[in-house]
Amino acid sequence: MRILIVDDHALFRAGIALLLLRLDAAVALVEVSSVEEALVLAETRPPGFELVLQDLNLHGTQGLDALRTMQQAFPGAALVVVSGRESSEAMREARAKGARGYIVKSMSADAMLAALQKVLAGASHFPLLADADPHETRLTPRQRDILKLLCQGLANKEIALQLGMSNNTVRTHLMFAFRVLGVRSRTAAALAARRLGFI
Length: 199
Fold this sequence. Notes:
By secondary structure, the protein is an alpha/beta fold. It has helices at 10-20, 35-44, 66-73, 88-96, 109-120, 141-151, 156-163, 167-181, 186-195; strands at residues 2-6, 28-32, 51-55, 78-83, 101-104.
């Protein structure tokens, strides 16, 4: 799993990097301090990120206005806002501009981890919005890719090799996909994915 952290505070980047290792011990983290650096990264090499964590108050950007640009630059990633501002208005605007989630920096480590797991499972996370769409839960593009290969009969090692990720990352994505589909086995996941038209 590849994750991009966009935050201009080195200490926060270091702290959240340690937390993200609990999501996947084999996670590949890339850190930048601005949206501009992130955009250069997107232009210079194929990013392939599953998750992008972006601070809302970055120097040189207009906060929420940068979300559309980031969404276009990293179309395959789940974009999550990280902010010290706990505001339903900011959460609603972030969601409208393409964010999949909104995490407040005052959250505990366990709560933040649970929120990120929820987002990676295909759901959204906007804790102050009571009007969140219950149909937003869905498979991420990477989970769909993995399920397609699973339906072709490939083993985890073969899927990992074909998609350029670790076996552990494949297992993590499948675990989240199983939760979305409400199944416990590879066979059931394949059947459910076909039946629901997810692949």
